[in-house]
């Protein structure tokens, strides 16, 4: 499993498009991993949406990761689960998911990054790098943490939080090889073209 | 597995008591099954609370059921899970939970009750019997549904929704042998004595 452009859904900010459309366009534009992250949806609706998304991601051979919910990831046979520091501990999640599934962990400090790697995370998220509307209550960790993690942690990490077309080169320069995007792709009119621009800027800087 | 008085947590209405205290007092008063149902809590906090509650319920030999979240039920090795019509389908839940765990299903019509029984539910909830503050958007199903279910469904069912000390005898007369209570026990000052009163009124009418 590796990836460059990680797109995370947010039905609340999608410009009148449903997640099927959002994910389809993002993948065409270059997203090579998708996270289903909807905080206000019932379990049943998440399962139904996840099953629909899986048809798209599977045919595109793009991993589908479920935010927080191991039960939903198992129910839809997703490729993995992404856990925040307030979600299930990775040890419990691994027991349920097995070794073949991807487990990603959000980290907000070098300590958390090292711990997640030690606990067997397949990848970690590092952020929020910049201030972001998606997580307004978090203090940005800055490019400093990206740099430290790139030097100290061996497993793949993805930079997340406020990454825009015009700051992505700084993030890559700081050591990131993967970026995660929500509003910059999911919240714009032309999702496909936004994804394509992110992807281009990303590989240009690598 | 059988029970008479099913108490469901709701930290938001507990009179300054944490759920450990709530559950302890409810069990002393007569609750013989407990459901952890907290809609605004992070997964991590639910796991931690569930693990703490399990110490109490286990030593009292009272089943602990987790609302909605199969992943949390598995993580804390709870006795079962309770699923609403908007939660995981029972088929998926059973695959994850196995046959030894309890699966309960909320039903709001005779059709749903029969379907849940057919799908292998261990018990069903039937309600809301009366109008209730916990689910203000549901139309009460009335004593009529309690009566129909008691005549047509073989698996254990528990009546829920607006059941008070002064209407419990009607519910039992309509055919219920078990009642579930939230605010009438969890939301009062003296939880133990409320649970005891419910229990007494319940068995008096059986
Ligand atoms: Ni009576």
UniProtKB/TrEMBL annotation, chains A, B:
Give the record's cofactor note, including how many are bound: Binds 1 Mg(2+) ion per subunit.
Q: Name one GO molecular function term.
A: thiamine-phosphate diphosphorylase activity
**Record-listed Mg(2+) binding positions:** 68, 87
Keyword Coiled coil annotated: no
**Enzyme Commission designation:** 2.5.1.3
What does UniProt give as GO cellular component?
cytoplasm
The Thiamine phosphate synthase/TenI domain extends over 5-185
Keywords in alphabetical order, please.
Magnesium, Metal-binding, Thiamine biosynthesis, Transferase
Q: Give the matching Pfam families.
A: TMP-TENI
User: What EC class does the entry list?
Assistant: transferase
Which cofactors does the annotated protein need, by name?
Mg(2+)
The chemistry this enzyme catalyses reads:
4-methyl-5-(2-phosphooxyethyl)-thiazole + 4-amino-2-methyl-5-(diphosphooxymethyl)pyrimidine + H(+) = thiamine phosphate + diphosphate; 2-[(2R,5Z)-2-carboxy-4-methylthiazol-5(2H)-ylidene]ethyl phosphate + 4-amino-2-methyl-5-(diphosphooxymethyl)pyrimidine + 2 H(+) = thiamine phosphate + CO2 + diphosphate; 2-(2-carboxy-4-methylthiazol-5-yl)ethyl phosphate + 4-amino-2-methyl-5-(diphosphooxymethyl)pyrimidine + 2 H(+) = thiamine phosphate + CO2 + diphosphate
Q: Where does 2-[(2R,5Z)-2-carboxy-4-methylthiazol-5(2H)-ylidene]ethyl phosphate bind?
A: 132-134, 162, 182-183
Does the record carry Magnesium as a key word? yes
Query: What InterPro entries does the record tag this protein with?
Result: Aldolase_TIM, ThiamineP_synth_sf, ThiamineP_synth_TenI, TMP_synthase
CDD domains hit by this protein: TMP_TenI
Q: Which GO terms describe its biological process?
A: thiamine biosynthetic process; thiamine diphosphate biosynthetic process
> What pathway is this protein said to act in by its record?
Cofactor biosynthesis; thiamine diphosphate biosynthesis; thiamine phosphate from 4-amino-2-methyl-5-diphosphomethylpyrimidine and 4-methyl-5-(2-phosphoethyl)-thiazole: step 1/1
Q: Which domain of life does this protein belong to?
A: Bacteria
Amino-acid positions noted as binding 4-amino-2-methyl-5-(diphosphooxymethyl)pyrimidine in the UniProt annotation, renumbered to this chain: 35-39, 67, 106, 135
What NCBIfam families does UniProt report for this protein, alphabetically?
A: thiE
Biological role? Condenses 4-methyl-5-(beta-hydroxyethyl)thiazole monophosphate (THZ-P) and 2-methyl-4-amino-5-hydroxymethyl pyrimidine pyrophosphate (HMP-PP) to form thiamine monophosphate (TMP).
The entry assigns this protein to a family as follows:
Belongs to the thiamine-phosphate synthase family.
**PANTHER family in the record:** THIAMINE-PHOSPHATE PYROPHOSPHORYLASE (PTHR20857), THIAMINE-PHOSPHATE SYNTHASE (PTHR20857:SF15)
This protein's name:
Thiamine-phosphate synthase
């Amino acid at each position: 499993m590796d990836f460059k452009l990680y797109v995370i859904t947010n039905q609340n900010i999608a410009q009148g498009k449903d997640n099927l459309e959002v994910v389809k366009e993002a993948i065409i534009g270059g997203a090579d991993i998708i996270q289903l992250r909807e905080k206000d949806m019932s379990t049943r609706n998440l399962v139904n949406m996840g099953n629909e998304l899986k048809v798209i991601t599977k045919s595109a051979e793009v991993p589908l990761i479920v935010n927080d919910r191991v039960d939903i990831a198992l129910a839809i046979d997703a490729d993995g689960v992404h856990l925040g520091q307030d979600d299930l501990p990775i040890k419990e999640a691994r027991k349920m998911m097995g070794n073949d599934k991807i487990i990603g962990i959000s980290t907000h400090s070098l300590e958390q990054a090292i711990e997640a790697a030690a606990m067997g995370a397949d990848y970690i998220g590092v952020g929020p790098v910049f201030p972001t509307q998606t997580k307004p209550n978090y203090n940005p960790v800055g490019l400093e943490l990206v740099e430290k993690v790139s030097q100290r942690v061996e497993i793949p990490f993805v930079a997340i939080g406020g990454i825009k077309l015009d700051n992505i080169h700084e993030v890559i320069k700081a050591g990131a090889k993967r970026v995660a995007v929500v509003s910059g792709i999911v919240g714009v009119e032309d999702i496909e073209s936004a994804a394509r621009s992110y992807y281009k800027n990303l590989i240009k800087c690598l």
